[in-house]
Design brief:
By secondary structure, the chain is α+β, with helices and mostly antiparallel strands.
Length: about 170
């Protein structure tokens, strides 16, 4: 666990070029990556065309209370449809997820599934959980709170939500 945020260099970000490198990155951030597990697309809830679009799914980390899971997915192509299909099925669970997507590791997407309570109107009224994916497409934005000196990327709302979730889990 780190008392302060980590300052990432562009070199460290460029080294995120495999599932093993991603696991090492999350271990550096204080996540337990000792129980990594390969999953099938069907095991996470995908079927048919949505499952066929995914080459690999791996659980990189899960906290001891099974509250937050870090999942890596490698789609055949990094598309909004592949991301949204994964967000839809992972959002159904009671757990929070940080989804890391990379087709060829040229572009990484870090997607925090932010679950918000909402009120459903109409005949099926009542409370419902609305999943709002918060996506960071520039890995350098993970500096958690300031602009990256190397590339100028700055964190968005997903970084703030992710930091809050990390602080809750660590306390």
């Amino acid at each position: 666990m780190h008392a302060n945020d980590l300052d990432l260099t562009s070199e460290q970000v460029s080294e995120l070029a495999s599932p093993d490198a991603l696991a090492a990155f999350f271990a550096t951030l204080g996540y337990d990556t000792s129980d990594r597990a390969l999953l099938s697309p069907e095991a996470v809830g995908l079927a048919g065309e949505a499952a066929a679009a995914i080459k690999r799914v791996e659980l990189l980390s899960e906290d001891p209370e099974q509250f937050l899971r870090v999942v890596f997915a490698q789609p055949k192509a990094l598309t909004a449809k592949a991301r949204n299909d994964l967000v839809r099925v992972l959002g159904r669970s009671n757990r929070d997820h940080l989804l890391v997507l990379a087709a060829d590791f040229d572009t990484l997407e870090f997607v925090f599934l932010d679950k918000r309570k909402g009120v459903r109107k109409g005949p099926a009224s009542g409370e419902r959980i609305h999943v709002v994916p918060k996506t960071i497409t520039s890995a350098a934005a993970l500096r958690h709170g300031s602009t990256c000196a190397s590339c100028g990327a700055s964190p968005g709302p997903a970084t703030t939500a992710w930091n809050r979730r990390r602080q809750v889990l660590r306390s």
